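Field reference: sequence -> structure
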Amino acid sequence: MPKPAPKPTPLTEDPRPLVGEPLALDLLNTWWMRDGVLQDLLALPGGLTVWLRSNGLDERFPADAVTLTHLHGTRAALKLALDDGRTGDLDAVLGTGRIRPTLTAEGPGELPEFDDPAWGPGWLAARSYLELLSTAPDRIRRCAHEACVLRFFDTSRNGTRRWCSMAACGNRAKASRHYARTNTPSQ
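Structure field:
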């Protein structure tokens, strides 16, 4: 009788090449390329827990199957909104929560409320996208490297950032251009 395959070890560290972007883009960046193969943090054992922890959401929201399902839907809705301008699915995500104004001893504030706590991370990511749109929609970018799927919010002074990382994609593009120039047969 064959032995069953061992269960993959759950992640403890975030393996993604780009982290720390605004929440909406960070959720999209749970997809990335490695050696020409699309990776998906949310499909890895422990990936949801790692993503929640990376964004300071692990104490507030459950890392369960329902939260994961809602995040998958939110991520797909964000991709549709960015790639095709289709916003209906994202609007539906936003319909699962609201901002409640508050007044405390510290002063006025806002508190997000959700129909179901499992919608919290997805709703916050959708809300983050709205904030990016109201701040500088032209600074929401996709890496210029043809083999990269990562997104970033360009915070450079002159707004000309092209790469998710100059050390990774920027250098690969430069090396590729150099190779093409130096290895073109003479006529």
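Note: The chain has one domain: 23-182.
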